[in-house]
Amino acid sequence: MLQGKSILLGVSGGIAVYKAAELVRLFVKAGASVHVVMTANAQQFVTPLTFQALSNNPVGCDLFRMESESQISHIQKARLADLVVLAPTTANLMAKMAAGIADDYLTTILLATTAPVLVCPAMNVKMWEHPATQKNLRTLSELGYNIQPPASGFLACQEEGAGRLADLGDILESALRLLTPPTLAGRSVLVSAGPTREHFDPVRFLSNPSSGKMGYALARIAARRSAKVVLVSGPCSLEPPAQVERICVTSALEMREAIFEISAHQDAIIMTAAVSDYRPAQRSEHKVKKSGKEESLLLEPNPDILASLGERKPSGQVLVGFAAETENIVENAAEKLDRKNLDLIVANDVTRQGAGFGAETNAVKIIGRNAETSDLPLMTKDEVASQIWDRVEKLLWSRTQ
Ligand code: CTP
Fold first, then answer.
1. What is the pLDDT of residues 86-116, one digit of tens each?
2. Which CATH number fits domain 6-178: 3.30.930.10, 3.40.50.1950, 1.10.10.10, 3.40.30.10?
3. 320 ligand 1 Cβ < 6 A
4. Whose CA is nearest to atom 18 of ligand 1?
5. Does domain 188-278+299-398 have CATH number 3.40.50.10300?
6. Is the pLDDT of residue 174 over 90?
7. How confident is residue 370, by pLDDT bands cut at 50, 70 and 90?
8. Domain residue spans in the chain?
9. Closest residue CA from atom 14 of ligand 1
10. Residue 142: in which H helix or E strand, if any?
11. Burial class of 6 by CB neighbour count within 10 A (0 to 12, 13 to 18, 19+)
């Protein structure tokens, strides 16, 4: 994900320094080359050796050490970075940055770099809420710094509130977003995901094993590309991706209502949801008791949300469907593309190992109206999502020319 990218991690002195060590591991695991620079106070919490061992690069500590300056100067470090991440950022460092002070290795680099900077504050809740810190925060935003707000919870100082270093996964996601070209900036997109549940009493329902992973990956990648993303999700156990508005629904009828309310304003809609084609004709208000005899359940058809979206598609909108198939993959998918008035259909063979329901990977064919087909090998769902957005972007681009 971060292959070929150089991240400069600036570490200032707070108890959350130990978490920065784990952050280095995450960045390195994602393929980035990481250079750490520590303030003098940060070195009181964790030694530079820890960061050197984890990053496999020398750690910048002292602006006036001839030896480290001759290897790679602070100006070179500022130039080399594709992204600067400050984690943790203390109240003191925020104040210095807001005032443009450059009195040590890290603050000097911060004035010299032209790379985007992600500020991840961590401190005591009272320090965070102090008007001076809040004023500095506003100044940093105005100066173009990107802020990863602290999380709330129990703090090292035994107080409760905002001030914990943000979740490391969220910091990684923000870093990815800052390093991804904003090819969907200014676009509104809607993705549906997960299964629907069709209840016949309060505790029983018809559903399917969709995990929601493909739809969540599409929402995550679109947000990374700076789209305004709404994710309409059936019940699943996944956390909403960062910078995505999630609307949770249960049944196909609820999903249709949520989607129809905003569908006309979307530049692109991708329906990955495994919508139940039928629902019980009746729903009991109370739990149905067993009778010990044979029972039958009368089903009635659910509306086809995607087909209705195809009928009411505004000009310029790109509409994408998914087709879970077990045979004649391309023929069946192409027929659905036509019947539902889609621009693209993503077909997958759900019987194939590593593809379809619940898997971390998928192998799909993306078919366009002119039968232009991308036959993708088995890859992660994030990679599949990137390929789908590439095709959608091409269509959006061609329509605005
Ligand atoms: N879909 C939908 N509403 C439904 C059923 C499906 O919007 N009631 C959408 C799915 O989100 C998917 C596409 O339609 O994008 C294809 O769904 P699929 O179940 O594979 O196809 P169907 O059209 O239902 O046809 P069949 O079940 O006969 O294969």
1. 999 999 999 999 999 999 999 999 999 999 9
2. 3.40.50.1950
3. no
4. 323
5. yes
6. yes
7. confident
8. 6-178, 188-278+299-398
9. 306
10. helix 131-142
11. middle
